[in-house]
Amino acid sequence: MTDQKTPRSAAITRRALLGSGAGAAIVSSGLLHAATRIASTDFVTRTGDLSIAVTALSDRAFRVRVAPVGALPATPSEMLAPIAKPPILKRRREGSRTRLTLPQAQCVWDEATGCLSFHDSAGNLLLSEAPGSRHVAQSTIGNEPTLAVAQGFVSPADERLYGTGCFQDGHLDIRGLPRRLTQVNTQISQPFVLSSKGYGLLWHNPGMAELNRPDRPIVLNRQAAAGEARMADVTTSTGNARVERRDAVFTGKFTVPQGGRYAFLLDLGRKMSSRHYVEIDGKPMTDHTNLWLPPTASFIGALAAGEHSVLVRAGDEDMPVLHFAPVEDRTTWWSPVSEGIDYVVIAGPTAAEVMAGYHTLLGPQPMMPLWVLGYIHCRERFHSSDEIIATAREFRARKLPCDMMVQDWQYWGKYGWNAMRFDEEHYPDPAGLVRDLHAMDMRLMLSVWSKVGKETALGKDVAAKGFYIPGTEWIDFFNPVAARFYARQQNQKLASLGIDAWWQDATEPENDDLVGRPIYAAPGRTQPGEKRRNLYPLQVSRTVYEEQRRAYPDKRVMILTRSAAPGQQRYGAATWSGDIGHDWETLKRQIPAGLNMAAAGQAWWTVDAGGFFRPGKGQYTDPAYQERFLRWFQFATFLPLTRVHGYMTDTEFWRYGETVERIARLYLELRYRLLPYTYALAAEASTAGMPLIRPLVFDFSHDSKALDQVHAYMFGSAIHVAPVLAAGVKTWDVYLPVSEGGWHDFWTGEHRAGGRTHIVPVTLDRIPLHVRAGSILPLGPVGQSTAGLLGGALDLLVYPGRDGTASLYEDDGLTYRYEQGAAARTPLEWKQATGVLTLGSQRGTYPGMTNSRVIRAHLMHAGSSALSVSSGVAVDYTGRAKQMILST
After folding, report:
1. What is the CA radius of gyration of the chain?
2. Is 505 in the active site?
3. What is the pLDDT of residues 109-150, one digit of tens each?
4. Residue 135, exposed/middle/buried by CB under 10 A (0-12, 13-18, 19+)?
5. What pLDDT sits at residue 237?
6. Which residues pair with 61 in a beta bridge?
7. Residue 424 pLDDT more than 90?
C-alpha cells in the first residue's frame, strides 16, 4: 500500500483565470488555450480507448472527465469559479483499487469493475457508477466533430432525487423520471441533482442533456378529426399576439413484456406547445394545459404485462413522439453534444453540506438588496409614468406595503423593440419617475430584453458591428465585445436614469433558439449553438451584473430573469417560472417546480402570483378566481420573492374587492414583519448556498413519509408551509415531519405532534403554517416599505419543545460594504431545560447601525398567535450578551 499527498498548484493556475466575467471573456476570446495545457489532475487511468481523469475541486468535491485518449483538454468551465483554496489529497493503493481521500469525501477507482464510486469522510458509500453504463461515441454537429456521451449511476430503490430545475411536469422526486434539459419559457434547466443518500451531482455540460432517456418508441397515428378552432391572446418575442389554436388526437399501441413501473417522455416536436395530455388504457397519466408549455413532458406509470393503448391530445400543429422504458435502479445522464463525460460529485452527507460544497465551487454569491424581500408589484403592463405614480400613491394611501413598481415591455413605443429608450409621449421624464418613486421609498424595475429590434437605431448599430446571432435579433453574449457593447448601452441609456433593478426577460433565449445557429467561439471563428445551448442566460446575467458593479460599485445589483444556468448565482440574479396559467393545477405544479430549483442550488425563485395568463375582465368580480388568487398570493408570501403579475391585467389588490384587499394586506404585513427572518435567510444563501425554500429532504431526510410530500415545504429552517390547493375547502391535510418537540400552529399556537397527518382547519385568510419546536422566530414591525425596518425593536417568538439556535443578520441593505465586513450578526440560543434565551454578543457593525434596541421575547404556547403576542420579557440590547428567563 502507498499513501501520497498531492498539492495541486497547476490546477489553481488554470482555474484562477475562470469564473468571473474576466475569465469568461478570456474563454470566449480563445486566449485561455495555452493555460488549459497546464491543467493537472489527481488521478488518471485508461480503460480501452478512453482516458478517465479525476480532479479534487474542494474538501468534499471531485470532478470526473472521460474522453478519448489524446483528446484536447476540456474547455474551461463557465459554471464553476476559481478554486479559492486547493485541497490536499491523499492517494492510497488498495490491491486493485485506488482510493483518493479528501477531508470530507473519498473517491475509489475499482479496476475490476471499471467504475468509480464516491464516499463520505467515514467511507460510507454515497454514489457509484453503474457497470457497463459508460458510453462515448464520435458524432458531429453541423460540420464539426463532437461526442455523444452517457453515464449511468446506481440508484437504490429507496433513493429520492431532487433538482434539475423548474419543470412543469409536477414531479418533486425525479428518480427514474425522464427529463430533457432545455431552456424554454416556463422551464429552467439545471443539470444538478440532490440525493437523499447524501450527495449532489453536477452534470458539467453546457449543452442539452437528458436524464433517464427512454429508448422505446410508440408509433402514434393522427386521427382525421381535429378539434374546433379557438382564439387565444398570447405573448411572443415580438409582442402581444392573437393566435388560433385547435386540438388534435393521436393514438397508438405498445406492449410491455412484464409488469412494473415504466417511464415516459412525450416530445411534441415543436419549440413550444400548449397541451400535455396522455392517457393509457383510458386513464389520464398527465394532463396540463397552458397557452405556453415546454415541448416535452414526462411521467411514470405502473403497467401490467401485455398490450396497452395510448391516446395523446395535442395541438393541431404538434408532431408528438412518445418514448418509454422500464424504471431501473439506475440514473443515467446523456448528452448528444459534448467534449466527453464530465461530472462533479459533492459529498454531504446532509443537504446543507452539499449546498455549501456546491456554493464553494460556484464562487461568491452576492447579497440581494434588502428591498427584494418586500412586495414587488407587476402587471402587463403600465402604459405611462402617470399610471405608475398613481398606482404607487394608491398603495401608500391604502396602507398596502410595497417596495417596487415594475415596468413591463413596450415602454419604448415609437423607438422600436428594446431600443433602450422611453417613448417621451408617455414617459416624459424617466429620471423624474424614479426620483418620485424613491421619495415614496419605492424602487423601479425595468424590463430589458437580450434582443434588440433591427429597425431601431440601436439595432442598426448592433447589426453593423456584427453582434447579432445570425438569423435572429438576439445579441451574441458569448462574444465578449458584443456583451460589453450591450452592457454599456444599457448603462448609458437606462441605468443612468437611476433604474434600480433589471428584468432581463426571455433569456433562454426564447425558446431554445441557439439550436442550428452559429455563435461566437473566438475572433473570426464560430461554433454551433448546441455546444453552449443552455448557458445563454448565464452570459446575459454576467454581462449586466459586471457592468452595473463597474459603473455603480456601491449599489447592489438585482436581476430578475426567466432562465438560469449553474454559475448564475454569482451575478445577483433571481428567476421566476415564466408565463404560467392561473388554474389550480398550475398553482399545484409550481410548488415542486420551485423546490427543485432550490434543490438545484438556485436560492432565488418566484412565480407570477395569480398566474400570468388570467381569466379576462371577469376576474375582478368572479368569486372563484378571487379565492384562487388569494391562494396563489398566500403561497407567494412564503417564496424568496413575493410578486404579482398578470397578462392584460391591472393586478392591484383593490380591484378585486374589499375581501381580497383585506386578506392581501394581512399577508403583506406578515411578509414585512418576517423581514428579520428572511434577511437572515438571504445571508445564509449568500454565504452558504442554502435556499430560502427547501424540500423536506433538507431537514427530514430520514422521514420517508416526509419525503413523499410534494406540496409542502420549509421556508427557512423554522416555518413549515402547506399551501391550500383546492376550492371551497374547510380543512387541509398536513403531514408534519418527525421532529423532536413537535410543531406549533403559527395562527393559534396549538401544539401538534410530528410524524402524523393532521386535519388542519383553514379559512379564506389562513393556510396551514407551523413552526418547528426549538425555533426562535424574529418578527419586526409592520412597515409600508423595507426602508428602516431592520435594526429597530424586535419580537423573538420562542417555540418550546427542544433546544434551538438562530441568528440575526443585518447590514445597510443597499451597498456592498458587507464584503469588507460592514455587517452585524447576533447569535440566539434557547435552552429548553432551563427556559433561558441567550442573546449572544453582536459581532460586527455597519454604518447607520443603532447602538441599542428593545428586544421582547415571548414563549409561545397553545392560544398564542404569532400575530398577537403579549408584552413578553423585554430587554434593552446594546450588543452585549444577555440572558432572558422565560417561564415554561
Report:
1. 27
2. yes
3. 999 999 999 999 999 999 999 999 999 999 999 889 999 999
4. middle
5. 67
6. 58, 346
7. yes
Cell numbers standing for residue 173: 422526486
Question: Are 350 and 239 a contacting pair, CB within 8 Å?
Answer: no
Exactly one of 508, 652, 699, 795 is catalytic; name it. 508
Report d(CA 45, CA 593) in Å as an integer: 39
Comparing CA positions, the residue from 330, 282, 340 lying closest to residue 309 is 282
Query: Are the C-beta atoms of residues 267 and 295 closer than 8 Å to each other?
Result: yes
Q: What is the DSSP letter of 647?
A: B
* Terminal-residue alpha carbon distance, the chain: 59
Q: How confident is the model at residue 233 (pLDDT cuts 50, 70, 90)?
A: confident
- Is residue 410 within 8 Å of residue 381, measured between CB atoms? yes
349 prior amide bond cis, ω within 30: yes
pLDDT at residue 27 in the model:
39
Question: CA-CA distance, 664 to 406, in Å (whole number)?
Answer: 19
Nearest-angstrom CA–CA distance, 648 and 617: 9
User: Which set of grid coordinates corresponds to residue 363?
Assistant: 464562487
Q: Are 356 and 661 in contact (CB under 8 A)?
A: no
pLDDT digits (tens, 9 = 90+) for 600-634: 999 999 999 999 999 999 999 999 999 999 999 99
Answer for the pair 347, 187: CB distance below 8 angstroms, yes or no: no
What would the pLDDT profile of 41-98 be if each residue is shown by its tens digit?
Answer: 899 999 999 999 999 999 999 999 999 999 999 899 999 998 878 899 999 999 999 9
Residue 17 has pLDDT above 60, yes or no: no
Helices (H), 532-622: 536-551, 584-599
The continuous run of DSSP H or E covering 464 comes out as: helix 457-465
pLDDT the model gives residue 230:
73
* DSSP states of 683-705: HHHHHH---SEE-GGGT-TT-HH
Q: What is residue 16's predicted lDDT score, i.e. its pLDDT?
A: 35
User: CA 162 to CA 169: how far, in whole Å?
Assistant: 13
Cell of 880: 452585549
- With H, G, I as helix, E, B as strand and everything else as coil, classify residue 842: coil
The C-alpha cell that represents 508 in the structure block: 433562454
Report the greatest alpha carbon distance in the chain. 80
pLDDT at residue 330 greater than cutoff 90: yes
Nearest by Cα to 884 from 862, 858, 846: 858
Active-site position among 120, 473, 505, 530: 505
Cβ–Cβ under 8 Å, residues 734 and 757: yes
Average pLDDT over residues 679-706: 98
User: Which cell goes with 784?
Assistant: 409600508
499-536 burial, b if ≥16 CB within 10 A, otherwise e?
bbbbbbbbbbbbbbbbeebbbbbeeeebbbbbbbbbbb
Q: What single letter denotes the amino acid at residue 520?
A: Y
d(CA 620, CA 144): 55
Predicted pLDDT of residue 30: 35
Q: Which position among 169, 408, 500, 579 bears the catalytic label?
A: 579
The three three-digit cell numbers of residue 856, written as one number: 421582547
Residue with C-alpha cell 435594526?
791
pLDDT at 82: 87
Sequence-separated contacts (24+) of 754-757 with Cβ below 8 Å? 755/703, 755/705, 757/733
What's residue 785's pLDDT?
98
Compute how many other C-beta atoms are within 10 angstroms of the C-beta atom of residue 41.
Answer: 18
If one counts every other C-beta atom within 10 angstroms of the C-beta of residue 179, the result is 26
Q: For the residues 351-366, what does the mean pLDDT come to? A: 97
